[in-house]
UniProtKB/TrEMBL annotation:
Residues 660-719, 732-889 form the Ubiquitin-activating enzyme SCCH domain. Belongs to the ubiquitin-activating E1 family. Signal peptide: none annotated. It comes from Skeletonema marinoi. This is Ubiquitin-activating enzyme E1. Residues 1-22 have a biased composition (Low complexity).
Length: 1112
């Protein structure tokens, strides 16, 4: 059988608080060592113990979770049809690591037209004239994932026989799903449907249990306060709880936490979860987004209610005093408080549960979804806000009837077949008019059928017939991803599509060469595409470009660049396998390169690179195709350079350092404070000091005070370690109180508990094992990978816990993020420098150290094992739930959840948009590229917006009114004969745009450098003066005078000199070497500068002009 993944079922991986079963290991000398630790660790595993399958699906596991990954291994899938959609579906399911995939190609032999949709069909396959589509694809599909069984159904077997198979691919399981990715005759399709349902294959579609409707990650929320209100106040609104009844109000830790979604899943426990709301007079106009309201929510619930009661009484009194309000109802609004929940106690167990509040976890509620069978699909009304869906529904039944009548499908561009299809559609529509709930040609308004007859769209149905035999690469990729995702949903993950997905790209149809015409094919062949990124998205795009015949002409070209190395976890999404794009590669990606491009195509996973390519496309006026995925979510547009990494949840340093209360706090601390300090930063600065002490002390002066102290302490610690010097640990006192007298360890501040090394738990041995081996790697010593051998070494050492005594130093109770050292830190640093100077004279006796560069995908390097042990040690200290190894790996390694299915769908949609862009450029009458294209996938009661494209805007060279420009605008200034001075440029800008220039700088530069700064100009008016007593206002007159005159002279020289000279003076690197050579190469290759201009209007409104292209 295929090797099964063990990580999803390993109890130690799910919760490190569980003690593993004791294992007795026989030693070579006949002794015995008992192991009860470390089964979850990866560093001791070599050879057959390494779980390569688990490593491949880290990104997928981050999106699905371990339970779903395990269930996917139980899925066997039969794929019927190996044209474009079939091979795409097979590829995506194999990469998704299902148990097995069986292919059925119906004996269709490879032809030339198949090379545009099935990416495994080669010219040799076509010339052989006997190789079937499945045979051409089988070998390559198997290479995608050695842990998924893939085979081709024997030509002598029939679908009806195979679907009854109860031992598919030797798995002792039958099929869980059948994907029909080709056109089958009506009789065969209905028979296949009935057999599947009769054998339980389609039961998961007929009545499906959904354990996770959206796939969004659940939240762990710390409870900061629990209040038992014996009598519910009048203004407090809790559904089902009457005034005066008891209710428990729970406040979560973060003020901005929004509990609007998914709280139903908490019901069914010993308490019932309810919303908390407060009544407020409408006239009060409370701003729920304002600071005052959010601050008020930080108070206890009784105080919040008391404040609102005073407000209520004030406005109610004023309302009653107004005679005009007689017999009127006092207007009140209900404000839901989203950082609180009410627990309605159903029994005594609920009360006991609240005695020790810690944290809550959002739970996914199970849903049941029913879906109808294939025959009923063909008659059910398809409701849509667009009439095309009505006619699309009318094309499914006619094509089946056409085949039943002619024993073949409609042929490409066959006028007789299209006429026949139209007549069949009309006949079916007329026959269904009197059948309730059937689909027939009727008008639709507001998305609903009106029952009024509507002419069948003959043009659309005829076109459907003419193009029936054709396949589009983008559509194949999208549908293959969607079909594979529907199969995965059999695991209970995500909500299935409600019967149909329909998407129509009318603008692509030109009716010449198959679909898009000769002009498109000629233009596509000569496209010059710059593909930035060659990861999962990039490989999918390359496949699409090849299938569409892009860049096959004499002027065509595809340039691919990627700066990242391939990670094992990428292989679950790659179907195939460095010059970095950025400010430091503009000597290669120069003006000529960008100006010759037809389109830039992003396939990136970081914001900085996307912002750079976006800025380049704006400057060179090139179309940009953008996309990205995050688990089951995707985006296919770019938000005009406003994207930022700052939207990630930032954790306050004081929380990480002193007051953790969530598992992620412990993970981040283990990564930032433990690993980074002791195995990356520490060995690095120590080695710099050991190799060249004087150079290190020079470098030390360039560091800020905090980094200086950190570096000095780490070096001293590494030297002390070699001298076997001991250290000390200060623990906080047990009874800490704030100056107000309030207990310190309340709310989310958990009192830490010390570890007892005299009675070690398994976690302590895991921590010792990973830490000791990491230090061995730092000191280039041999690691001890065998756990039994390590256990024997530890036992032989007979380690004892040191006796701790309080230092007597005052403990810092600060809750802020101020990282500055205490007042005497400078004095301590000087002492450390003095001690290190003693070693600087002769460092030959110091051992060399090897800094550890964090690598998440190498289990043998102890990195993830150490972080997991350190995380859970800290979690144990603060009584926080332990984190499984994979959760630590995902968080610390910044692993982005990714799915092959999502990647395929989004790439297919962008392929379609690329085709749209080619047509928009080659056919003036085509306008759809300026119209956003939408695809909606229905999920439960809401629609999920999957795809939207934004129109390409023609750039405007020149500048409109200073308050109305966009990112597409640019100011062009050209003075090639006589170059402008900085003074003349400032005057030109101020006169042309009616502004006062504050600064002129290199466009995009964020540092405080400038060709011109108005503040420097003001220094021209500075003078040295005396006060009335004759004393000099500025100390050391002569020195200050000289300095001021030099400043004025320097400014005037730059101000009155050429703009290009000022640019060189400010931005050219001063040190000779690689950076200066690169700068000179880029500067000599251009006859222009790109400048940014900060200025203000007469009304003192600060504005930034569009990019200025100054040609000289």
């Amino acid at each position: 059988m295929t090797k099964r993944s063990t990580t999803a079922t390993n109890s130690n991986d799910n919760n490190n608080n569980h003690s593993p079963t004791n294992k007795r290991i026989k030693m070579a000398d006949g002794g015995e060592v008992v192991l009860n630790w470390g089964d979850w660790m990866g560093s001791y595993k070599t050879g057959n113990l390494v779980d390569n399958e688990s490593e491949r699906i880290d990104r997928q596991k981050a999106a699905f979770g371990g339970d779903t990954i395990a269930r996917l291994k139980d899925l066997n899938v039969l794929i019927v049809g190996m044209q474009g959609v079939g091979v795409e579906t097979a590829k995506n399911l194999i990469l998704s690591n299902v148990g097995g995939v069986m292919l059925y190609d119906g004996g269709i032999v490879c032809k030339e037209e198949h090379r545009g949709s099935n990416f495994y069909v080669t010219r040799e396959h076509v010339l052989e004239e006997e190789t079937t589509l499945g045979a051409a694809s089988l070998t390559e599909l198997r290479t995608l994932n050695p842990f998924c069984r893939v085979d081709l159904l024997d030509g002598n077997s029939t679908l009806t026989e195979e679907i009854m198979n109860k031992d598919v691919l030797g798995t002792r399981r039958g099929y869980a799903a059948v994907v029909v990715a080709t056109m089958l005759p009506k009789k065969e399709l209905f028979q296949l449907n009935e057999l599947a349902r009769a054998n339980g294959i389609a039961s998961s579609w007929q009545l499906r249990m959904i354990t996770d409707a959206t796939g969004e990650p659940t939240q762990t929320l710390a409870i900061s306060n629990v209040e038992v209100l014996d009598s519910k106040p009048k203004l407090l609104d809790v559904a089902g709880v009457k005034e005066g009844e008891q209710v428990v109000v729970v406040t979560v830790a973060k003020m901005n936490t929004d509990l609007r979604q998914g709280m139903e899943g908490l019901n069914g426990m010993s308490v019932t979860v309810k919303r908390v709301a407060i009544a407020s007079p409408t006239a009060a106009k409370v701003d729920t987004r304002g600071v005052a309201f959010k601050t008020a929510l930080g108070l206890p619930t009784e105080s919040v209610v008391s404040n609102f009661e005073r407000q209520y009484d004030f406005y109610k009194s004023a309302f009653d005093e107004d005679e005009g309000n007689a017999n009127k109802k006092f207007p009140v609004r209900t404000i839901t408080i989203f950082n609180r929940l009410a627990f309605v106690l159903n029994d005594d167990n609920g009360k006991k549960m609240l005695e020790k509040p810690a944290s809550m976890h959002s739970v996914n509620m199970n849903l049941e979804v029913t879906q109808s069978s294939t025959p009923s699909h063909l008659q059910a009304i398809q409701v849509s806000c667009r009439n095309l869906a009505r006619d699309a529904g009318a094309t499914n039944a006619p094509r089946l009837d056409f085949h039943e009548k002619n024993n073949r499908w409609p042929q490409l561009h066959n006028a007789d077949d299209s006429s026949q299809m139209v007549e069949i559609a009309k006949s079916i529509s007329d026959s269904r008019k009197d059948i309730e709930g059937a689909c027939w040609a009727q008008s639709i308004q507001y998305g609903f059928p009106m029952g009024e007859p509507h002419d069948v769209d003959e043009k659309r149905i005829a076109r459907y017939s003419r193009l029936f035999a054709a396949e589009l690469t983008g559509f194949c990729a999208f549908l293959g991803g969607a079909a594979a995702q529907e199969v995965i949903k059999a695991s209970g993950k995500f909500t299935p599509i409600d019967q149909w997905v329909h998407h129509d790209e009318e603008a692509l149809v030109v009716d010449d060469i198959a679909i898009m015409g000769k002009d498109f094919q000629a233009r596509a062949a000569n496209q010059r595409v710059f593909l930035v990124g060659c990861g999962a998205l990039g490989c999918e795009y390359l496949k699409g470009l090849a299938l569409m015949g892009i860049a096959t002409g004499k002027d065509g070209k595809i340039v691919v660049t990627d700066m990242d190395r391939i990670e094992v976890s990428n292989l679950s999404r790659h179907s195939c396998l460095e010059k970095k794009v950025g400010d430091d590669s503009e000597d290669y990606f120069n003006d000529k390169f960008w100006e010759n491009l037809s389109v830039c195509w992003n396939a990136l996973d970081n914001v900085q690179a996307r912002q750079y390519t976006d800025a380049r496309c704006l400057f060179y006026t090139k179309p940009l195709l953008e996309s990205g995925t995050l688990g089951q979510s995707a985006i296919t547009n770019y938000n005009d350079g406003k994207e930022s990494d700052d939207n990630e949840n930032q954790i306050a340093m004081c929380t990480l350092r002193s007051f953790p209360y969530l598992p992620k706090h412990c993970i981040e601390y283990a990564k930032q404070a433990y690993f980074s300090d002791y195995f990356e930063f520490g060995p690095d600065v120590y080695e710099n000091f050991r190799q060249d002490p004087m150079a290190f002390f020079e470098q030390l002066d360039t560091m800020d005070s905090g980094e200086q102290s950190r570096a000095l302490r780490m070096i001293k610690a590494f030297i002390d370690l070699q001298e076997e010097a001991g250290g000390s640990i200060d623990l906080m006192p047990d009874e800490m109180e704030k100056s107000s007298g309030k207990k310190f360890w309340t709310g989310t501040k958990r009192r830490p508990r010390p570890v007892d090394w005299n009675d070690p738990m398994p976690l302590l041995m895991e921590y010792l094992y990973s830490t000791a081996n990491l230090y061995a790697s730092v000191w280039r010593a041999e690691v001890v990978r065998d756990r039994s051998e390590f256990q024997a070494v530890v036992d032989e050492l007979k380690l004892e816990q040191a006796i701790w005594e309080p230092s007597g130093d005052k403990v810092d109770l600060s809750e802020g993020d101020n990282e500055e050292e205490s007042g005497d830190s400078g004095e301590d640093d000087e002492k450390l420098k003095g001690e290190l100077y003693k070693f600087a004279a002769d460092t030959s006796k110091l051992q060399p150290a090897q800094p550890q560069e964090f690598e998440k995908d190498d289990d043998l390097n102890f990195h993830i094992d150490f972080l997991t042990a350190a995380t859970n040690m800290r979690s144990w200290n603060y009584d926080i739930k332990a984190s499984p190894r994979h959760a630590v790996k995902v968080t610390a390694g910044r692993i982005i959840p990714a799915l092959a299915t999502t990647t395929a769908m989004v790439c297919g949609l962008v392929d379609i948009e690329f085709a749209n862009s080619c047509l928009a450029c080659s056919h003036k009458a085509v306008t759809s590229f300026s119209t956003p294209t939408l695809i909606w996938l229905q999920a439960v009661e809401t629609s999920q917006h999957l795809h939207q494209t934004l129109p390409f805007q023609s750039p405007r060279v020149g500048c409109p009114a200073t308050t109305s420009f966009t990112s597409w605008d640019r100011i062009d200034i050209s003075y090639k004969l006589n170059e402008l001075s900085v003074e003349q440029l400032v005057a030109y800008l101020e006169k042309s745009f009616g502004v006062t220039v504050n600064r002129i700088f290199l466009h995009g530069d964020t540092e405080d450098r400038a060709l011109y700064n108005a503040l420097d100009k003001k220094k021209l008016d500075w003078t040295i003066s005396y006060n009335d007593e004759g004393k000099v206002q500025l100390v050391t007159v002569e020195k200050v005078k000289v300095s001021l005159e030099q400043t004025k002279e320097s400014f005037m020289k730059k101000f009155q000199g050429n703009v290009s000279d000022a640019y060189l003076q400010v931005y050219r690197p001063s040190e000779e070497g690689e950076k200066q050579d690169y700068f000179d190469a880029v500067f000599k290759g251009r006859d222009y500068l790109t400048l940014g201009v900060d200025c203000h209007t007469e009304e003192k409104e600060d504005i930034t002009l569009p990019c200025v292209k100054y040609t000289f």
